[in-house]
Structures are given as C-alpha cells and as structure tokens.
Amino acid sequence: DLPQVSIAWASPITLDEAAGQQRRLTQLLRSSQHSWLSDARDVTPGLAAEEIEAMSPRGEQKSHLLAVISEGRFDSWFAGRTSPLLAAAEAAAEASDEAVEADPGESAATDTGSVGGVIERSPESARIVLFSSNDFLKDSVIGMAGVAVGSEYLNSLQLMANAVDWSLEDQGLLGIRSRGHFNRTLPAMDHSEQSFWEYLNYGLALAALGLIALLWQLRQRQRRRAFLEYA
Predict the structure, then answer these.
(1) Coil, strand, or helix at residue 167?
(2) Where in 31-184 does DSSP place strands (E)?
(3) In whole angstroms, what is the distance from residue 45 CA to residue 54 CA?
(4) What angle do CA 137, 24, 169 make, to 5 degrees?
(5) Three-state secondary structure call for residue 22
(6) 196 has a pLDDT exceeding 70
(7) Which of 2, 46, 93, 104 could be stapled to 53 by a disulfide with Cβ–Cβ 3.0 to 4.6 Å?
C-alpha cells in the first residue's frame, strides 16, 4: 500500500454513469479534502520577504477523483468504419504484387504478410487505468517531489509498477487463489487462549526434557548394575 501519491497538475475526472453501466468502474485515487480547482496557468509560487509564499486556496475545497479503473468490453472507434490502416495495407499489397512480377525470388523472401481486418471491440476482460495527469511521471516532477521530501520520491513510480502488475494478472487464476486462500485457516483465538496454548507448549517441552533425563538416568543405572554383576 502507498501512503500517498503526488499527482502534479491534475485535472478532475468526471464519470459518465450511463456510459459506464456496461463496465465496472473503480475509483483508484482521490485528492484530499483540502484541494481546490484553479484555471490559473501560472503555478510558480510567489516570493514574499525572500521567502516562498504558499498558494492560498481558491474556491470550494473538496476531494476530487484523480484516477479510475474501468473493466469490461470497450468498443472500437473504427467499428463499422473503414480503418485508414487498411487503405495503406491495400496500397502496400498492390506495390508488393508489382514487386513480385518484377522479381519473384526477392519478394517471396521479404513478404511478411498483412492483416486485413478491424478489431471492433475488446474482450470482456479488458482493463483501462486512467490517471488525471500525464506529467506526474516526468523526471523533473519526480525530482521536485524528492527535493520537497528531502529524499528520493518513488511513490509515483511504485504506483505505475503496481498498475502494470495488476493489468497483467489473470482474473481467473486470482479468483481460484482467493477462494482457496482462507479454506483451511485456524479459528481466531483471544489472548487468554493464546497464552494457554503457549504455556502448554512450554510445559510439554519441559516435560519431554525431564522424561529424556529420566530415561538417561535409568539407562546409566542399568549399565552400572550390569558392570557390577560381570565384574
């Protein structure tokens, strides 16, 4: 879990509930309750008496949605339309046919084939992670965040690493693993029960050591008695 993430120059995300009914939406990140919106283009802090002047809140302060996850089927913009890539592929195919007529041997060696279809929609397992800023991963922004905290700031990079790991996970395997994760867990115990079993383990261990010592003493007596009988 990440304690916090700095999303530089973010814009709030507005969810279209009607359009998102076919998909599952999950709010991933929200700003603090003290954040506000501003249309000012100058984000440089001011100087007052040779000190950096903190920016004052403007307008209503409330939490805003900064990252969202959408899961489900996504329709392609090219569904029912002609893709411009197909026109380029047809032109390349015509040029390839002319090249085959000119030099059949060389064209056969370099022909890699072409795809002549349009993907109209994604599978039901498709996932999209939307962040409200494309600048928070820049080196300059991460460097400024590190200067502010006095050390390396890696939360934003860890966020992206987590997003990549999650996007590559198989939901079917995760479901199987999550169902069997708590199948054979022990029942919860209160402090008194834990103490009882802990002290019982100590007692059994001491009893086992005492039994071993007693058996060793008996064995030594038998050896001594046998030695005296044959002496």
Answers:
(1) helix
(2) 46-48, 51-53, 65-72, 127-131
(3) 6
(4) 60
(5) helix
(6) yes
(7) 46
pLDDT digits (tens, 9 = 90+) for 32-85: 998 988 887 776 666 666 666 667 778 889 999 999 999 888 888 888 887 777
Q: What sign for the dihedral angle of Cα 57, 59, 61, 66?
A: negative
* Least confident span in 12-16, 92-96, 139-143, 200-204: 92-96
Contact 71, 21 (CB under 8 A): no
Q: Residue with structure tokens 């600048």?
A: 135
Taking the C-alpha atoms of residue 125 and residue 71, their distance in angstroms, rounded to an integer, is 7
Structure token digits, residue 20: 């998102």
Q: Which of 183, 163, 76, 182 lies closest to 120, judged by CA?
A: 76
Structure tokens at 99: 């090249």
**Residues facing residue 129 across a β-bridge:** 69
Enter the tokens of residue 176.
């199987």
Percent of the chain past pLDDT 70, that is, above it, reads 74
Helix (H, G, I), strand (E, B) or coil at 24: strand
The residues, ordered by sequence, that sit 6+ positions from 188 with a Cβ below 8 Å of its Cβ are none
pLDDT in the model for residue 67: 94
The structure tokens listed for 110 are 């370099």
* 41 Cα distance to chain centroid: 32
